[in-house]
Every structure is written in structure tokens, then in C-alpha cells.
Amino acid sequence: PITIKFSHVVAKETPKGQAAEFLKQRLEESSDGRIHVKIYPNATLYGDRAALAALQSNDIQLAAPSFSKFIDHSPQLQLFDLPFLFHDTEHLHRVLDGNIGNILLQKNSINGLHALTFWDNGFKQISANRPLLKPEDATSLKFRIMSSKVLEAQFRTIGADPQVLPFSEVYAALQQGIVDGQENTLSNIYTKRFHHVQSDLTISNHGYLGYLLVTNDIFWNKLPDDLKQIMTEAIEETTVFARS
């Protein structure tokens, strides 16, 4: 069988973690055992940036980093960091499934990477150890953010101090007071237990957190045509599942 190593940084119970398990099941069933998938959650194998390098060298065959990890390849993905850009989830999916989404997949299929599809983690909320009801409530607080000039500008606009940190280090940074708050989706906040080290949460839905599912050209180009078709169909099914 062909072995696919899938590395990601979140918990198995999150939308991405569940999608990875669903994709494994569909690929193994649909291929009659010709494909075997090994999943490495919680950054047990690689963090997101290291995963991209490992993907390019075919040490792993699937990863689904957040959009922020692709900004060097495609700065246009910072579009999704703009606050309050989408009316709702339906509006967001029309963009991802349409011409703009196709263009972004093409722009990220470079440097040995082959972009496959977009997976949701949902809209972000903001937390701290004080109530955040007005912009000035964030003044002088240090907030962990993903690497993005748009996110930096967003937090500086409300008087906060943005700090770029890997996702795997956020809990400890909150616990030790290295940062005062963070922005994330509810599933990430809950599964990483940020609520154990943060007292207040504002349901703001201010920004979108998406993932780009990617493989590499070495693996993809060697895959037989019938398995490419099976993989394409399984990914389409998994994207529907992940959104639900």
C-alpha cells in the first residue's frame, strides 16, 4: 500500500482533526486498502512551518496549515485576515468555492506544493483576563497572533501589542503571562483549554480561520490516475464533512 503521512498541529477533536480522521477512513475504504494514512496530530511530528518543509521534501504527504503559513507564497491570503469581511459562513463559502478560491489554489501550487482545497475552522473570538467590550478595553494588552501584517495592524488599531507565537506555545504563554490574550476559534480555545488560563471571552466572529490542505508534486505526480481520482473525490467529501 501507498502510505500517506498527514501532519497537523491541532487536537483530534477539532474540525481539522475530525476531518483528517474522516479523510483517512474514506481513502482507505475507497482504495480497497491500496492507500494507508498515518495521522500525526498536536504537532507530534512537525509544527506548521516545519511541516511545509517536510512536505516539499516528501517526508510527509499531507498537511493543512492555517492560511498565515502561506503568506510568503501568496500574500493575497491575508485577505481572509481582514476583520468583518464576510456576512456569514454562506458568503465565505461562495468566495472559497468560486473563482477567487480557484485562483488562490493555483497561486499556492508552487515551490513543489500542490494545493488541494480549503478547510474551515470557523470564525475567531477574542479572549483575555478582563472583559473586552470596547476597543479601548484591549489597550496595552499583549495578544498572541498568527504571523500576518493585517493581524498586526488590526491589534495595533485597538491599542494592543500583537505578539507572533506558534500555536503549540500559546497555552504556556497565557499561563505564564507572556501574553495577556489571544484570538482563536471556539474549537481551538476549548480543545487546547485556553479557558483554564483566560477568564473572559468575547464572541466577536471578527475574523476567519481557514486551512489550506496541501500535498506535494513528488507524491502527486507519482500517484496512479485511478488513485488520484479516488483521492480527489475523498477530499471533496471530507470538505463537506469538515464544514458541517
How is this structure best summarized?
The chain has helices at residues 15-30, 48-56, 89-97, 99-107, 149-157, 170-176, 186-191, 217-222, 225-243; strands at residues 2-7, 35-40, 62-63, 113-123, 125-128, 142-145, 161-164, 181-184, 200-202, 208-216.
Mean pLDDT: 95
The helix/strand order is EHEHEHHEEEHEHEHEEHH
Q: What fraction of residues sit in β-strands? A: 15-25%
Overall outline:
globular
The radius of gyration is 18 Å
How many beta strands in the DSSP annotation? 10
- The helix/strand class is alpha/beta
Verbal overview:
There is one protein chain. The protein is of the alpha/beta class and 244 residues long. A 5-stranded mixed beta sheet has the order 7-6-8-5-9. Strands 2-1-3 form a 3-stranded parallel beta sheet, sandwiched between helices. Strands 4-10 form a two-stranded antiparallel sheet. The chain is built from 9 helices and 10 strands. Helix content is 37%, strand content 22%. Helix 1 links the parallel strand 1 and strand 2.
Question: Which features characterize this protein?
Answer:
single chain; about 240 residues; alpha/beta; 3-stranded parallel beta sheet; 9 helices; about 35% helix; globular
How are the secondary structure elements laid out?
Elements: E1 2-7, H1 15-30, E2 35-40, H2 48-56, E3 62-63, H3 89-97, H4 99-107, E4 113-123, E5 125-128, E6 142-145, H5 149-157, E7 161-164, H6 170-176, E8 181-184, H7 186-191, E9 200-202, E10 208-216, H8 217-222, H9 225-243
Parallel strand pairs: 1-2, 1-3, 6-7, 6-8
Antiparallel strand pairs: 4-10, 5-8, 5-9
Helix pairs in contact: 1-9
